[in-house]
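Hi support team,

I submitted a single chain yesterday and got back a structure, but I'm not sure I'm reading the token output correctly. Could someone confirm the output below corresponds to the sequence I sent? I've pasted both exactly as they appear in my results page.

Thanks,
R.
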Amino acid sequence: MQIDRDQFWRLLEPVHPQAERFCRRLAGNRFDGDDLYQEAVLSALANSGSLRKEQSFKPWLFRIILNRFRNCARREWWRRHLSLSDLKPHDEPALQPHSHLDFRRHLERAMSHLKTSERALVVLYELEGWSLREIASLWGEPEGTFKARLSRARIKMRQALMPKTPSQAPQKPTEERYELPESTASSE
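Hi R., thanks for writing in. Yes, this is the structure output for that exact sequence:
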């Protein structure tokens, strides 16, 4: 299917806010996210001839964003500077300032233990609200694959947030011991 520039912008308009937000969450901040979004849109515009159906525009664009993010994340500079300071869920209740900072710090620590593909999966499912079916069609793999990957990513995040304490062996219940009373006899 060949689409012209006007048609491309018309297709981009309804998904623009969600795609831009997704880029910012993947990149970890507004500025790098906007750069990622701009690169992805320019790439999508240049490759608009590869779009097969108008109905598949959103997954096609998000796939381009994911590919761009993976390519960027492979570069050494991105690995050093990738932070998650701007990530937060949509329906976050009004938090006290210190609670909001705690939330961001915990989320950043948990997400830092994930690979780029796991991070993208968590952002799409947990923060963007995509279904596993939509994510599976985006990657072109079975839905069960992503259910397992999401589960493993959640486990990694949970382990990253667990306090680092030495594991203690479970204590066996102690038997009651009866002690003999001290003898009152004197030893001479």
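A quick pointer for reading it: The radius of gyration is 26 Å. Let us know if anything else looks off.

Best,
Support desk
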